[in-house]
Protein 1
Amino acid sequence: MIRLGIMGHGNLGRGVEAAVKHNPDMQLVAIFTRRDVESVKPLTPGVKVYKAEDAAKHADEIDVLILCGGSATDLPVQTPEYIKYFNVVDSFDTHANIPVHFDNVDKAGKKSGKLGLISCGWDPGMFSLARVYGEAILPGASTYTFWGKGVSQGHSDAIRRIEGVADARQYTVPVPSALEAVRSGSTPVLSTREKHTRECYVVAKEGADKAKIEKEIKEMPNYFADYETIVHFVSEEEVSKMQQKLSHGGFVIRSGNTTDENGHILELSLKLDSNPEFTGSVLTAYGRAVARLAKEGKTGVVTVFDIPIKYLSPISEEDLRKNLL
Amino acid sequence: MIRLGIMGHGNLGRGVEAAVKHNPDMQLVAIFTRRDVESVKPLTPGVKVYKAEDAAKHADEIDVLILCGGSATDLPVQTPEYIKYFNVVDSFDTHANIPVHFDNVDKAGKKSGKLGLISCGWDPGMFSLARVYGEAILPGASTYTFWGKGVSQGHSDAIRRIEGVADARQYTVPVPSALEAVRSGSTPVLSTREKHTRECYVVAKEGADKAKIEKEIKEMPNYFADYETIVHFVSEEEVSKMQQKLSHGGFVIRSGNTTDENGHILELSLKLDSNPEFTGSVLTAYGRAVARLAKEGKTGVVTVFDIPIKYLSPISEEDLRKNLL
């Protein structure tokens, strides 16, 4: 039985909790929170809730700690910190800062003798695997990643941290004409801006400077600066009505030729009713892989690129080959 | 530079040859054939063609030998034989016999100190990865694999080996209503027969017993016995006109819920102008992985489930994380 802990009980933490229920070889042991412990209502009967600051005291009870904070400010601090005590999994998704995060987590893990998997989920994660696979199988072809339509939690979170913002919801939307061109097998050159728009629905605090908020969003590096970004100021009621479900999706397409005559199109697509529940499921499966790799003595940091797929599955290697190969 | 050899210069062997041209870190050193050496016309200037029976003499010149024979009778013999001298990759695709083939190749490889990757290609291969991934990420959901419409070379080959058959072409065709049901997000229970039909276009030799041929096809275990199989007897001219391109494709769909409210659909799809060229590309990328793993001292047998994706790519680990994660 693999004993899991969850750090942070927001949407993603609850997604991990829901996923653990589907995995009979895993057990949720503890939830850690920075909020009032009494305010956290676990979905799992009997699971303990502790203060985040007391986490290290429970290191011996937990095989893998799934970190469910945000990439903007939580994970850059939390992952190198908690790997001092735990094997960890995070969903760090600020693409431009992955190399620095990788090094920080690697150093801390090598020192503590623990293992950390960073940047796991569906993108980065599943989609990253599809990109590398496509590049390796069809060298010289073109890869296209499209996201949406869906709420990006990381981007919504980033907007919420801006001074004067009460709430925000950010939708990523593929540009239909770009999508059609790629799926037809033609290989257009498309900039990031040409593939997606980012629509932001923002609730400003009373008296806040809306022009300043809009400027800060549109100029935010990594998150918005490279995109066609549209900012709508709306009421709290409108935002909460907009979408109860945090649905999302996207696809990775690799398109290119092996010879002059013959072209090929690979596509991985996801249609997700709940981004945090699906991401939680991915983190949980990789939690199994991290528990196993740590048991084999692996320390430091890994990404999805380093992990043979058999480590994700509770099925024996023999049965995988017999039934799924 | 990774030095490759090709055993067998049929459609698949030529597909591997075409793929090597796209991979600057690889070099095609030799083609081995059971046919008359003079009859083989390599696409690659300067590449040597040798008799298959002389292969072992060239063991020191080759890092990985890609076996391009058929699964019905070639590979069960060839893979355990050639792993005595070479690291090897094969595309063995008789699903039911994979466990036995695995054991045979493993024993021979452990003895010789060489490494063999079996059952590589798009199915088994890429689709197998998608199935395991789907099972691990969404436990309790349903997986559907559809193939086609396309020519199955293994199945065409199997028909051609029947006494009295001059030529044959076998098309696998998804049943449209089954496909629609799955893509809608419903999770019907579908037998193999309900998902596909197998259409066989057969050229009988003069005086052959057509009824006997048809019966042998329809009752062939693993290949046809479990399917709705339709046999058409046609002329040689009709078969050769039917399709110059060996196009194929298919998809793996995983569909299921994380909670009562929220469902998710993962789909991997392939649209291939040339099945052997694409399969050749997959074998070539995995040839790189086998060369690297063998260099690290790995021996015996592996499948796609055992290989971290980074081994497939010529890109450095740092650049993979920086640019593709």
Protein 2
Amino acid sequence: MTKKLNFCIVGLGRAGHFHLSSIQSLDSCSLKYVVDPALDGGTSLPAGVSLLRDLKPALTDPELDAVVIATPTQFHFQNICDALKAGKHVFTEKPLGKTSEEIKTCFDLAEKLGLALYLGFQRRYDENFKALKASITKIGQVRTLKMSSRDNPKPSLDYLKISGNIFHDMLIHDFDMLQFLLGYKIPESVSAFGHAYDPDIEAIPDLDTVVVNLKYDDGLICTIDTSRTAVYGYDQRIELFAEKGMSMAENQRENTVEVHTSEGSLKAPANYSFPQRYKAAYAEEIADFVNGIQNNRLYNVSRDQCLLGHLIADAAHEAVVTNAVVDFQKKYGKELS
Amino acid sequence: MTKKLNFCIVGLGRAGHFHLSSIQSLDSCSLKYVVDPALDGGTSLPAGVSLLRDLKPALTDPELDAVVIATPTQFHFQNICDALKAGKHVFTEKPLGKTSEEIKTCFDLAEKLGLALYLGFQRRYDENFKALKASITKIGQVRTLKMSSRDNPKPSLDYLKISGNIFHDMLIHDFDMLQFLLGYKIPESVSAFGHAYDPDIEAIPDLDTVVVNLKYDDGLICTIDTSRTAVYGYDQRIELFAEKGMSMAENQRENTVEVHTSEGSLKAPANYSFPQRYKAAYAEEIADFVNGIQNNRLYNVSRDQCLLGHLIADAAHEAVVTNAVVDFQKKYGKELS
Amino acid sequence: MTKKLNFCIVGLGRAGHFHLSSIQSLDSCSLKYVVDPALDGGTSLPAGVSLLRDLKPALTDPELDAVVIATPTQFHFQNICDALKAGKHVFTEKPLGKTSEEIKTCFDLAEKLGLALYLGFQRRYDENFKALKASITKIGQVRTLKMSSRDNPKPSLDYLKISGNIFHDMLIHDFDMLQFLLGYKIPESVSAFGHAYDPDIEAIPDLDTVVVNLKYDDGLICTIDTSRTAVYGYDQRIELFAEKGMSMAENQRENTVEVHTSEGSLKAPANYSFPQRYKAAYAEEIADFVNGIQNNRLYNVSRDQCLLGHLIADAAHEAVVTNAVVDFQKKYGKELS
Amino acid sequence: MTKKLNFCIVGLGRAGHFHLSSIQSLDSCSLKYVVDPALDGGTSLPAGVSLLRDLKPALTDPELDAVVIATPTQFHFQNICDALKAGKHVFTEKPLGKTSEEIKTCFDLAEKLGLALYLGFQRRYDENFKALKASITKIGQVRTLKMSSRDNPKPSLDYLKISGNIFHDMLIHDFDMLQFLLGYKIPESVSAFGHAYDPDIEAIPDLDTVVVNLKYDDGLICTIDTSRTAVYGYDQRIELFAEKGMSMAENQRENTVEVHTSEGSLKAPANYSFPQRYKAAYAEEIADFVNGIQNNRLYNVSRDQCLLGHLIADAAHEAVVTNAVVDFQKKYGKELS
């Protein structure tokens, strides 16, 4: 029997709780530490788990194998570096850091030390998007990709203020999804338009509604539209228009009931928000991380893919600010080589 | 160029108007007479059409080729016989008559005189049911057939009082649809349950809600449920459960718009009533009749199929009245030979 | 903090494994014993669980609180009685026993001893059917209920031989679902037709395709159709036709992808079989049992409902054998008083 | 009774035939002339219709009321001017002319002479898009509009060579649909990407796959994607994302049948091409023209809307050619005042 992997979770907010539950459900894992300075001794943790206010003591424990990082964004980079330097495998919520330099530093460290570095791009584990990717063999070369990625409910203003911006906080998932579906492809041009309907978001300043277009040199055009507030439910759909057909991944609904009256036929709404939609995906991403450690598959997202997503977010932001088409390869190409 | 066929319509109610419009849209037809004792000279008819109060004078016109009968039910049989005896092709709304003897008489007359006799079972011309029938090649032997056939809005009490009963007025269409889909098959057993929710219908006495089951000796079981009042729209759906799959014909909707709010996703209701659902089918049935006359294809529904439908209606009625399973072959088999 | 409830599972087949997983996921439970004479010492069980070949030793353990019975059908009754007499709460897969006398004995025992007796009618915990039930407030009095309940894949012949018959093995779930949706209602009449397409099933003798109709004195007519082999996926749908509308619970699909080609639009099939469809329901039924024990809610299905379902299965079987409508109240009414 | 309107159709290709059939079905119209130099005397026309090789003689007929123009594109402008100058009402397929000057000339003529000038933007008469427009009252201010407008089958190369380009030939319908749905709104910025997958189209030179984005000063962002070859069927869908919900108009399907096998659930494809999708809309647009003449409602699309659509097509073309965001108001604003 394989030795159990000992885990530490840093940050026990909403994401941290998902990961706690995922780790406990895996026979191959044992949760040893939870690190969160905001929790006190009265917090109810599973039997055998130690609550720490700081990551350092856990990192000195030679029994600890892996660290799951779910802290506020600004602490990711430091925690990742500390954990890797202590010889621990790392699973982290995005982003790795604020700049492409920080992203490179993380991957270089993991590479040098032979440690796993996994990102919480949970949509890669969604059954619907996996089936969508598989459908490409049926429809041939994708010519137009349309992605709707609309949040519900609107996050708190406190969160939004520290989120970076809508490009690096929300759309970064979509830019990763492009690569999940189509592989590593560097766009030729990036264009984007956006607006802030919410005056509080405008004041940050940030946007709440954005459309980004990417053009590739093989003809592919991708359009991503996003919003912070899809009041009708969490809305994440993708459509692939291709040479031999079209495929779409639709939203999941709360249930399958349809009620017919003289008003029409009413189906249940889409899942309320991401915890409902990605419940299974959250469990699967941790299982994949554990499986990766056990089988020396050290990344779920490559250094190049991670960097490309970050730079596309930079370019889209620039496109809105300058109201111009960004020549991506000219401006960002050198950072990718 | 083929000579135009001259038509007479008897009865200019709702069905009569459909047929008038169908005949006018066909280049191969010319409408010569409309017969309706309830209309007066002020009625607006297309140019060149004579309004008569009685069918007789039209039947003596040697130029007249075909008669379309859309009178109240109780006059069908006499009109059909008169028209056939005068050497005219006949298209008639169901039923041919009140008894199986009358049905046989009509077909015998048409057969002897070599004239076309077509029934207005318009569902046979519905694109959805034609596609459903074609799907059987994909799914193999049908094992269970489920048909929902629910009316909207509820017909007037005056109509219901002279309609015969729900079995011969409404379900007769469904019993014909069974034969359209599966061919001529004599059931082994018939069972049925029904209820009258509407006290006026109960007083007739008739039923407004009925479920009929037919069992065949090869194992096939058919279930038909019907209602006079599907308040959510006209509801005619069929499901075929078969050896290698299942196929369904769903309702048509008023339009394809779907509105998503926090309440759910609302689609437009099914077509309001039969004129909307079967608009194209009504046009096609007259075109088929004309085509049949021109090509010596003298029936759209055979004598045997017509008779079988009528007898199944008798048996289903009996099953409700006696609250017993009717041994169809024993009781009705001899009438079919 | 509440004391943990100690559990014993009897029978570690497919259902037993579901329950094992459910019990482990609940913080309020501790699994102490697994009883299965067919397992040997090499079986991998979670840490701290003892494997027994016989239920008796577990029942003498005063620490044991509850027994989950998932053995082959023929052992249910004895195990239930033994466990209740030992003072343990019982959760059992259906059926309680082979006869209505056995069913009454179980409930009488539980009642007398103040112990919980829960049945594994997992469909009551399905989100879709719960939402369907809730929809009745929108559509008003149900007039026709149509239920499709078709299995996939066909169970093994070994299983079918000891399953009782299709009425008590499969349809019993549907007869329970009627009561879940509509409450305790005694039918007036029961009619049923069936066929065996599979010669092995015919030889048992049993049926693989059945349609059952139930008529109630308030006018309600229910139609249930079932099959052992829905090759296109597990198919459990219910439609309620009512005074003010209609509602339907549709199947769940494997994913939400739709692929459009010139052939048409292809959606993923329905869930493959019951473990996929009812995954969440299986977890919830054990949680409900635990909650029931803790809150002195001792049944999820009442004695009367359980008995009524059993007698309807008897009546439907009789209706097929005799090819007659069964007068349910006359024949079975006295057993229900 | 109103006097019948006498019609002349110029150009009896596919569109001309639609209009011929529409005119014949209207009691208020009489078709007097068909003008087509490519037809010979053997062409079968309805009784009473004269075939001319040139429009002039028809225009001198004082009995003629209205001219329907369905010639190849390059003859539209001359025919429109000739007909208006002769005092005839005009219904014309788009475009009015090749330049905004020609468009203005047509409207100025019609205005001066008090004649009707209607454009064949048939999508305005589609039931689905009308219902979509009506849905805006439920969902509030539109924030993102996504339109897919994909053709099937690919038009002939001969047609494409004289079609102008994809912006003025295809997307012009979509730019009109924007105005139908949202009213007359001048965009702030236009961006577009395109590609030619078909080497013959590339050689014209033209594009076969295009995505256009329009940004408005109130925050609205519209994305239109188009293709000459949607091999899975004619694909015209629109999605409105708004403050209080989202609404979508989906494609119509050939029929409502769904076939379920182990591969999944297959629905009939979308309508094959525009004649099927817009069959009813083609009839309705002529009826609206006739009604407009009778009620002195002289335009279905205003001069400003027509001009704006044309200029957006210019701007989108420019955006692709220059790979830049076009500042629409700066560049084209003056032409609209």
